[in-house]
Specification:
The structure is a single chain. The chain is of the alpha+beta class. It has a single domain (2-110), classed as Zincin-like, CATH 3.30.2010. It is built from 5 helices and 3 strands. Helix 3 packs antiparallel against helix 4. It is globular, with a radius of gyration of 14 Å.
Length: 111
């Protein structure tokens, strides 16, 4: 998880999305990084369904989205490959509601 400490991840709430997803991770493409002189950036988009989940469900969703960030933290997104599932299992095992009490309190108004 060390690579996640070196990259900026913004969290946004999108109440108007019609997607069936709970959350999505977006990465800033390398071409935009070069064109605008920006570092690798990621955006974690939380959708309405996220706030109707249990705290442990929220922790699993966050682990899933963070597993999409590759170890290079280059702005790219990792597909559901072997490395993704390895990291997802690791993150999901580390993220519990007791360790992150804010997951119990989070609401759309709090973002």
């Amino acid at each position: 998880m060390r690579h996640l400490a070196d990259v900026e991840i913004a969290v946004v709430y999108n109440p108007r999305s019609r997607s069936r997803a709970v959350a999505r991770m977006w990465g800033l493409n390398r071409v935009f990084q070069l064109a605008y002189g920006m570092p690798p950036l990621y955006v974690l988009e939380l959708l309405e369904a996220f706030f109707h989940m249990s705290c442990q469900g929220r922790a699993r969703v966050l682990a899933h989205e963070l597993a999409h960030v590759p170890s290079t933290a280059s702005g790219a997104l990792r597909p559901h490959n072997k490395a993704f599932w390895r990291d997802y299992r690791r993150y999901a095992g580390m993220m519990t509601c007791d360790d992150f009490p804010s997951l119990k309190l989070i609401s759309p108004r709090g973002i």
